[in-house]
Amino acid sequence: MQPVKEKIKAYIFVSIQFLVLAILLFYQYKSGWRHADLLKIIGEAIETISILGILFAAPTIRSSLTVMPIPKFGAQLGTGGLYKYVRHPMYSMVILFALGAVLTNITYIKILLLALLIIDLYYKSIFEDKLLSNKFKDYTKYAKNTPRFIPFIKKKVLSESHES
Questions:
Q1: CA–CA gap between residue 17 and residue 31 (Å, rounded)
Q2: Band of the pLDDT at 161, cuts 50, 70, 90?
Q3: Which end of the chain has fewer surrounding CB within 10 Å, N or C?
Q4: Which CATH number do you get for residue 34?
């Protein structure tokens, strides 16, 4: 059973994530940006790739899949498929999808929302990493060898530079 404080934190991360995604998808404003038609095509292609990425990543963790950063009871650690290349491929694909949504109808508001989503998912992933390292003894080793969101970009993990 997770402490109430952790559950509240998890719900805040997920609420921000879904609110930002909803606004990105449904906020429509005539874009005055140059090359808006080309950006729309590129954005739709990125959205399609991200959906395929989600569909490819999901089976790796099957019954452990949840939007909540708190691991499910009986969850198994998934380290195959896309999880071999990044610790949080679902978050990577959500960010990629949001980027596509921004490009399909680019506005300054949508760019700011994308930045907010990236910040939210970054801190959500740090929170999730801590919970996963508590649940799975092999997680810390996996995290040290596997980048957070972008393949082949490795940084310090669990303590993730909150130090000065």
A1: 24
A2: very low
A3: C
A4: 1.20.120.1630
